[in-house]
Hints:
Number of helices: 6
Structural class: alpha/beta
Strand order of the largest sheet: 13-14-16-15-17-18-19-20
Strand content: 25-35%
CATH topology of the largest domain: Rossmann fold
Oligomer: single chain
Helix content: 10-25%
Shape: globular
Amino acid sequence: xxxxxxxxxxxxxxxxxxxxxxxxxxxxxxxxxxxxxxxxxxxxxxxxxxxxxxxxxxxxxxxxxxxxxxxxxxxxxxxxxxxxxxxxxxxxxxxxxxxxxxxxxxxxxxxxxxxxxxxxxxxxxxxxxxxxxxxxxxxxxxxxxxxxxxxxxxxxxxxxxxxxxxxxxxxxxxxxxxxxxxxxxxxxxxxxxxxxxxxxxxxxxxxxxxxxxxxxxxxxxxxxxxxxxxxxxxxxxxxxxxxxxxxxxxxxxxxxxxxxxxxxxxxxxxxxxxxxxxxxxxxxxxxxxxxxxxxxxxxxxxxxxxxxxxxxxxxxxxxxxxxxxxxxxxxxxxxxxxxxxxxxxxxxxxxxxxxxxxxxxxxxxxxxxxxxxxxxxxxxxxxxxxxxxxxxxxxxxx
Length: 398
């Protein structure tokens, strides 16, 4: 499994392990007169260094791709740039082209034995392919689909984007509908246009014979329409008011109804074996949606679900209302959460689960700890933690 020193959760940026070397000044002996002043020698400048690494994308079948490493040091007396312990350069600053494999490599900048900066990174296999130890190998057929809806906005028909990862071969496959989350606090409109998929999750399910669909709700990715899942009046960030937030959730559920009916109609989908899941806002939507469509779905898997973070005013009323609605589903659900979640503390999420079961919901609540320094809200990136839980849940649905 990939090492967790690389984090591509929010914006595709590598996780950086940085150490800045500070050299303490050596004080000279005070003069016999006991002064300091003009006899003191100033400390040497502090040594520092930074790495900037540009990775690359490997086409299916490729073993390496060309990226670059740029570095700069200040006051270093014995600079070294290393990759997996091998010296690449001893220059104080520079830039080199580098052939990245699909496996992780450790890039470090040193001054003697002191680490100035370090990054763990790899070349990224093209979508629907994964590193097999020697090259990027295709694991699924990726389909980028357009789905008609009954919605009309500003006089124009609205279509949704749905990205599908389909197992090789012909047949009718069990299918997972996986729902994306929000965009932080909603203050960066450039994030609305990013199509969400999880290669990690798609590969896990495809390996087990499942087709995976990632619908992009209205205004997200390349879907038409306005992204309107509960904003303040100025649309500068998500609203923390109960009525506005819940109206946004209902709008999202309407989009999922359309995506669900479309998925069921596909000739390559076994409509008797459907599962719904999602992360963050998508997680609570999955639970609410399975209760809305209990005749369609076998179950729901909630990754770190919630609609409003704990720092948002009406978070408790909004989240509890959605989880209470979800309790109407008669089957079992799976709740997967991570410690050190930047949106939901573990006690808070456990209290939501307790409210869900008190309202009649059935399920299992499991908390995992990611590597130190990693945000538990992005638990989906660590299948080594949740794989056994999810496999057991799927087995129980058969």
